[in-house]
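Quick note —
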Amino acid sequence: MKQTRRAVVYISLVSSLCLALAVSYLPSNASAITAADWKAGHIIDDSIFFNKDTMTPQQIQDFLNAKVPTCDRNHQAFFWLGGVYNQPPYTCLKEYNENPTTHENNIGRFNADGSPVVVNGGKSAAQIIWDAGQLYSINPQVLLVMLQKETALVTDPWSATWQYNRAMGYACPDSGVGGSANCDTSYYGFYNQVTSAAKQMRRYVTYPDSYNFKAGVTRNIQWDVPSSCGSSPVYIETQGTAALYNYTPYQPNAMALSNLYGGQDDGCSAYGNRNFWVYFNDWFGVTSRKFAATYAGQSAYPTIVSGRSTLSSLRYSNAGNLPWYDDVSAPQYQTYPVHLATTQPINTASQFSSGWPANNRATGTFAHVYEADGVTLAPNQHIAQPGQIVQFDFTLTANAPVGTYREYFQPVLEGSAMWNMGGVAWTAITVKPVTFAATFAGQSIYPIVQKGQSTTSFFRFSNSGTLPWYDDTSALISKTYPVHLATANPINNASPLSASWPTNNRASGTFSRVYEADGVTLAANQHVALPGQIAEFSFAFSVAQAQASGTYRQFFQPILEGSTMWNMGGLVWLDVSVP
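Predicted structure written out below.
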């Protein structure tokens, strides 16, 4: 069954009265758009076309009320094209209701007090429109505009029965001047028309290969119904645009675009899709909006140890006029998500991508969404409205050789022909080797030890390397080399004061304390010193009775016991006085 139908708002002149009626329903905001804004291959963005949550039923009702403040129930009898006769009283769309099951409606029916009859089980036109949008994920604004461009129902103050029967022009193929001979009457009725049209729009997207027009292809699109009017090739950019052409397969020619709010006709002027575009822009805002990103900040340039990872972040302001959706919210709204991609050139495979969704996509989820101040969290952390700021958090894993690298990123509208949102930014990544290193961080006072006695001293060292230190307690568990406090200068010299040590050249193999970098706060693990933390070694100097009196300078340094990388630096000493 052919569902496409030319819009009835602009048809060949048969009655000047009909034309006057049609022109009167055109939007009045002539300054909103110009012919230069028309783009045949991009009538509407998908993020708009498929956004089912733009209006509530009450908002749709308010919209209809505003378009027709007063219904003209007793307008004069009217002969429409094709000899369809209508007489008062008339029911305009804001007062219409219908039972979706029995299809009983209230056309021309009013109570004694003048209020419109509400049929048993009836739903308002606003509710029917909203229900269809929700059921098939079609923007109710799209359905309102289709009603207007097909039968002018939205702004008609004295709507006729035929307008409700053929409200969306569904199952009414092109059949000349306003006629209904080719209409399938089984689809008559407002509920049938709205619901069927919404379902058909969804079918165009679900089964794109079953229809002539689909996103990402070039098709010759006629100027009007007669093939003799000719056509021109059009690259169709969005699914919504393809759906509109499948429903009404004509594009406006120069005459139709020369006066967006008029109805000049050179015999090859089709107005359906032009009127859709005009109505939508004037009623609900632009149908084609831009996605644009502006750099808004980032974390510090990272330094990463080979084989290790670190967390980085980039911030971008939504500088366009459409919301951004991430992988969490995009499926709900059936739109393209915004991802953080590698670039320069786009989709470069990153050396730091271990753990990413792909080697050229750092993340597809917003870590935070802020208001324009960059501090206040937005109400929805997975949708960024225009002006808001998105923070992408992602890991960088150093699988590259030692050195400094520059990695470029930009947000992209994943899967869209309009993927390039701008906002190229970069971070400098320094990869440094795995190291064990110690820096002196404090010690006890120089001790005085009587012969035959002992005293306790300590050294503190900061872990200034890139790997944790383990002592004898934790190294066994982690199966790694332990860090010991050894005599030094020269290394491993036998100390005369070592009677209480594990050996005469190892003062200690256990951390007595592990502190955070402040040197005060105890670390969570007292037997592992992470990079930046401070390890304390406590040990005793023991002086034998026969030890000669004098001052002894004993050198020490921490070492990685058993490793070829034993030398961690951090040479220190204590002067021990024996009276």
